[in-house]
Amino acid sequence: MQTDVVLRGAAITAVGAQAAHAEDLGFGGIGVTETTGNPFLAAAQAAQATGRARIATAIALAFPRTPMDVAYTAWDLQALSGGRFALGLGTQVRAHIERRYGAVWSQPAARMREYVLALHAIWDAWETGGDLAFEGEIYRHTLMPPNFRPPPAAHPRPPVLLAAVRERMTEVAGEVADGLLGHVFCTADVLRDVTLPALERGLERGGRSRADVEVTASVFVAGDDEGWEANRRRVAFYGSTPGYRHVLDHHGLGSLFEALHARSRAGAWAEMPGLIDDDVLALFCVRGDAPGEIAAGVRARLGDLADRVCLVTEAADPAEVAPVAEALRA
């Protein structure tokens, strides 16, 4: 199984070194995030510091940027990386798009679908030398003079990977994207019972097959009590968020969401991890005393559901989970 790691919130001055370190550890994919900085600048640093691993935005926010802006940026990153870049896109939530970025939020699934189609149309025009004539309900791109047309690329266009939590966005990924990026707050049951059927509906709508879309699942892992408790805090945080309630509801844990959400609104963050018992935590986190044991648990949980797996941990150094990744590749 191909294994990825995400450099969460890495400083721009440290991204290159961290990416090189992750590649040396054997990870097949390295993700950079949009948290405290620009993910495309981080991806450029990671691409220049590595030579084998796939470099992906995990994720970049689509809606604050136009498809043309992202098309140029992804095209350049694909060239810079020697064909190793993957464009991971996500929506964020309305409050962040409108109040933090000052951008437009509307019809997120329909907007993302058209966004990806616009990217394809722009890249088609660059690759073929043909006219750009994309006219959707949300985006319109109809001008591409020769002076603004990139030269022919030496590599295939970058794959577009969509982050999806709910069924509608998952269907969009199946219909138009090259990959699905699963959220770490997702259990194997939800992936099997909800996510993959939604993906199949999108594939059918797009006239495609399962082989056309790469599925990446994320999973918390822990090799000791410290890691286990750190993941308990993360699960409590995600479990308090209305956007992820459906995951708990699928396991009959709606009352747990209500309790977590109430405490988050009251600012009682310290009380929330205590509501996550070990059985609930085990739905999201694979615990083991040895790397091989953790790898076996990840493979048993996700091996028949996903093409790639991203190992999620609170550890600052990916070396702590590298032995697990190595065991998964064996």
UniProtKB/TrEMBL annotation:
It holds the Pfam family Bac_luciferase. Residues 11-300 form the Luciferase-like domain. Keywords: Oxidoreductase. The keyword Oxidoreductase applies. Its EC number is 1.-.-.-. It is an enzyme of class 1 (oxidoreductase). One of its GO terms (molecular function) is oxidoreductase activity. PANTHER family: CONSERVED HYPOTHETICAL ALANINE AND PROLINE-RICH PROTEIN, PTHR43244. This is TIGR03617 family F420-dependent LLM class oxidoreductase. It comes from Svornostia abyssi. The lineage of its organism: Bacteria, Bacillati, Actinomycetota, Thermoleophilia, Solirubrobacterales.
